[in-house]
């Protein structure tokens, strides 16, 4: 009986400890553990890392984190001037040599240029160790008001773009029998967030495609990491589609909003990459808590989502709030 009591108390202590860790967490518990006891970002030194969407926001922050870790970088986006600025900042912050960074302008929708882009990187660095599919776009509009064209454009940019580039990079990684594909996803890719229909659709599709890739190539030493992101500071709301692709939301995030700082988010993400985790959740509460509930208690999560959605949509219809709040 004494051993039973001891075992019971140990279980209680464990559950309380885990609960407290989760209460104050901004990542899932596995990533927390890796940040304390796992591989550090420095373990990525000399890896060739290709980042899409590197001209601003999370892609820019990732560039700085990886430069400080000693990685060789390929920076891609459409805006070459911004990429040059990011390269200059990487050199200044990390004192790395200029030839360790390749600026490669890239349009994720120009699918026929992706193989040539891969050849350019391989000619310059001779290898690609990690591809970070970070480029993408957000969207805010009610499902019933969103045009089919908007749905199509979101799928092209957020799903087909990463698929196309990954398909161009993958043969090289398979030949070397080593590689790591990373995708920036969202909590909207784990459950249907009201007002983000097209965006949520694209992120769910991204999970399906790359989870399948992981299962097919894991035995050939190809790792796939899905990064489930909660709210963090970026230019996403400025460029976000609305119900139409012809109208952007055009809103700037305010400093007082409850969002994670981009540099902080990027550090968590780099730790996840260094430890080759399959899927990580990086978010403040309540989004992080809801992802946990959705993962382990889906029926309860669906009930909660319906209640929250009903109240939020009522406020939107009454003009008391808007879709980006």
TrEMBL record:
Residues in the signal sequence: none
Write down the Gene3D superfamilies for this protein, in alphabetical order: NAD(P)-binding Rossmann-like Domain
Q: Which InterPro entries match?
A: NAD(P)-bd_dom_sf (IPR036291), SDR_fam (IPR002347), SDR_family_member_7 (IPR053011)
- Mind telling me which PANTHER family this protein's record contains? DEHYDROGENASE/REDUCTASE SDR FAMILY MEMBER 7-RELATED, DEHYDROGENASE_REDUCTASE SDR FAMILY MEMBER 7
Family classification: Belongs to the short-chain dehydrogenases/reductases (SDR) family.
Please state what the protein is called. Answer: Dehydrogenase/reductase SDR family member 7
Q: Which organism is it from?
A: Sinanodonta woodiana (Chinese pond mussel)
The organism's lineage?
Eukaryota, Metazoa, Spiralia, Lophotrochozoa, Mollusca
């Amino acid at each position: 009986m004494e051993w039973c009591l001891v075992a019971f108390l140990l279980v209680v202590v464990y559950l309380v400890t885990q609960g407290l860790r989760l209460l104050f967490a901004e990542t899932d518990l596995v990533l927390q553990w890796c940040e304390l006891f796992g591989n550090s970002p420095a373990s990525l030194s000399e890896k060739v890392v290709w980042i899409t969407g590197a001209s601003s926001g999370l892609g820019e922050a990732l560039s700085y984190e990886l430069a400080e870790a000693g990685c060789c970088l390929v920076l891609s986006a459409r805006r070459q001037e911004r990429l040059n600025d990011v390269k200059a900042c990487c050199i200044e912050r990390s004192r790395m040599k200029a030839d360790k960074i390749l600026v490669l302008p890239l349009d994720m929708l120009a699918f026929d240029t992706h193989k040539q882009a891969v050849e350019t990187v391989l000619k310059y660095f001779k290898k690609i160790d990690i591809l970070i599919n970070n480029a993408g776009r957000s969207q805010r509009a009610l499902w019933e008001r969103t045009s089919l064209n908007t749905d199509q454009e979101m799928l092209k940019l957020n799903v087909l773009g990463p698929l196309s580039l990954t398909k161009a990079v993958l043969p090289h990684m398979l030949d070397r029998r080593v590689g790591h594909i990373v995708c920036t996803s969202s909590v909207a890719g784990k459950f249907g967030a009201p007002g983000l229909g097209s965006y949520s659709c694209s992120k769910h599709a991204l999970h399906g495609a790359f989870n399948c890739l992981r299962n097919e190539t894991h035995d050939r030493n190809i790792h796939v990491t899905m990064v489930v992101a909660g709210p963090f500071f970026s230019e996403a709301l400025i460029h976000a589609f609305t119900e139409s692709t012809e109208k952007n939301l055009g809103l700037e995030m305010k400093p007082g909003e409850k969002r994670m700082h981009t540099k902080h988010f990027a550090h968590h993400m780099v730790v996840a990459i260094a430890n080759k985790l399959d899927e990580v959740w990086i978010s403040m509460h309540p989004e992080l808590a809801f992802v946990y509930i959705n993962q382990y208690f889906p029926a309860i999560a669906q009930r909660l989502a319906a209640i929250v959605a009903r109240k939020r949509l009522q406020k939107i219809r009454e003009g008391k709030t808007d879709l980006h709040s």
